[in-house]
Amino acid sequence: MKATRRITLLLATVALTGCGGTGLYAATPVVTIPATAPASDARIGTEVIPADEREPLTVGGVDTDGSPLSTADHIGNVVVLNAWASWCAPCREELPLLNQAHRTFLDEGVTFLGLNVLDDPIGAAGLLASSPYPSIFDRDGSLLATVPGVPPRSIPSTVVIDRQGRLAARIIGPVQPGQLEPLLAELAAEI
């Protein structure tokens, strides 16, 4: 019973001190790797959905310039959709990792899109300038709320959509070094 209370207290602390320190933007990691997985497994914190259990997912809206942008425009590619905000320190910290993965998989049929959540275009402009891929503007967080298994206002969060437009994986919290690459290689190889 005491161990359960400690875990609950730890999770409550994480929820209250999430991104931005406001308590509203918690990013609780999801771990679905079996207990027998090696501690160095780069997929820790990644929830991979088996192919026969994947559901279609489309997230669309407009970019910060008002042009239409949707994951559906990229059916046939693997799509990495990263939810972020300019005021979120972990979002800024993971951006170099996402940019590197974007460069690594540029010619492998993998598309990166951002989902700029609970932000304003002026605040987002600086981070958008350092990102090689476009972002969908989600001012009120309503688009992020439609992504299954991602808690509302949980940023940063990253979902990966397979070539058929189905949700294939979720990462709740910041992307860690080496976390995306094995997953993207596996999904890019799927036909």
Can you offer a commentary on this structure?
The protein is α/β, with parallel strands linked by helices and 191 residues long. It is 26% helix and 20% strand. It is built from 4 helices and 8 strands; from the N terminus they run H-E-E-E-E-H-E-H-E-E-E-H. The protein has helices spanning 2-16, 89-104, 121-129, 180-189; strands at residues 46-48, 60-62, 68-70, 78-84, 110-117, 135-138, 157-161, 167-172. A 6-stranded mixed sheet has the order 1-8-7-4-5-6, with helices on one face. It has a two-stranded antiparallel ribbon with strand order 2-3. It is globular, with a radius of gyration of 16 Å.
> Class by helix and strand content?
alpha/beta
Shape verdict: globular
Largest sheet composition: 6 strands, mixed
Give the N-to-C terminal Cα separation.
47 Å
- According to DSSP, the number of beta strands is 8
**Beta-strand fraction estimate:** 15-25%
Helical proportion? 25-40%
Integer-rounded radius of gyration: 16 Å
Side by side, the strands of the main sheet go 1-8-7-4-5-6
Stretches with pLDDT under 50, minimum 5 residues: 1-18, 20-43
The overall pLDDT average reads: 81
What's the total helix number? Answer: 4
Question: Could you state the order of secondary-structure elements as H and E?
Answer: HEEEEHEHEEEH
